[in-house]
Design goal:
Blueprint lengths: L2 E6 L4 H11 L4 E4 L11 E5 L14 E4 L18 E2 L4 H19 L2 H9 L16 E5 L3 H13 L2 E6 L8 E5 H9 L4 E4 L13 H6 L4 E5 L8 H10 L2 E6 L19 E3 L9 H16 L15
Helix pairs in contact: 1-8, 2-4
The protein binds NADPH dihydro-nicotinamide-adenine-dinucleotide phosphate and oxalic acid.
The site of NADPH dihydro-nicotinamide-adenine-dinucleotide phosphate (NDP) has 31 residues, from helix 2, helix 4 and strand 7.
Amino acid sequence: VTVLGFVSTWDRAPDWKAALTALEPGLDFRIDPELGDARQIEAALVWKPRPGALATMPNLKVIVSLGAGVDSLRREEMPADVPVVRMIDPQLTRGMVEYVLYAVLRQHRYFPFFEDKQRASAWDQGGPVPDTARTTVGVMGIGVIGGAIARALREVGFAVRGWSRTPHAVEGIEGFHGADGLAPFLAECRHAVCVLPLTPATRGLIDARFLSLLPKGAHLINIGRGGHADEAAILAALDSGRLGHATLDVFHQEPLPAEHRFWRHPGVTLTPHVASLTLARTGAPHVIAAVRAVREGRRPDGLVDWARGY
Ligand code: NDP
Ligand code: OXD
């Protein structure tokens, strides 16, 4: 019998209990802080865990993050020899794909312009027809989620390029990598999508220099983490017209403070960190697979490498 400790102040424990026990009926599912004898717990399922909670579980074999990003797990609190696995969930990925397709197409097909015209009862067909095949969309981070986003954009007919840490060959997607690849990557991006993990190497990446490397009037989409962006630099670039629009889902401070200029800036479309969410039903198979892999001495999918930071 696997004993699993659920340590999240956000996710719905009953949903996860139902989804996990449907797959592994014998699972002993315990919810923090009612963990019983915490020495029995082998697997922890966590999101923004209560400080100190994991330290009460001396016999942990695996920690599974309820999110794809593991930046909110305080590494110093992760027991050194316990593998950490990030979430990989087809519905989480699909939601991210939907979000980016919507954000790109909304700007590409001038919907904000037509919504303004409708409010004025004005029949105005606007500017030139957008040429999809000559519109470049750049995806920063082409892992599980960014790779799916890039392929979906390619299917719609955009010219798609990806930027990653290491080189990748993906059919129909122009690849760029590493610090040296960033400027040539950004130079053609009409839409630039950030779906990177937050690590020491990616923190603060979207700064004034980065924005100056994009074509004038480009559209920035940040669905990675707020820490990827210098928010003042984004506002300055929107004010100067260097950036045409920003679609933002993640922020330095969440919830975004009511006085933040992003709320009212006409060049910003914002959502409250909902680009995508994991469903217990669709995420549970990955959790069970991770627990089984570790128990059987195999490498689990989504294993975090703390040296890379993701
Ligand atoms: P993966 O680990 O599968 O992919 C990460 C990608 O980022 C890889 O392509 C990797 O390069 C690239 N990368 C990492 N570091 C660098 C770097 N220094 N320079 C260039 N590229 C880099 O992650 P996922 O696709 O599963 O998730 C990505 C992120 O999306 C999460 O970490 C999270 O922050 C965010 N997210 C946000 C959500 C939201 O609702 N807003 C929901 C879900 C996720 P390489 O391929 O070479 O390793
Ligand atoms: C995630 C998130 O990382 O929801 O999964 O942001």
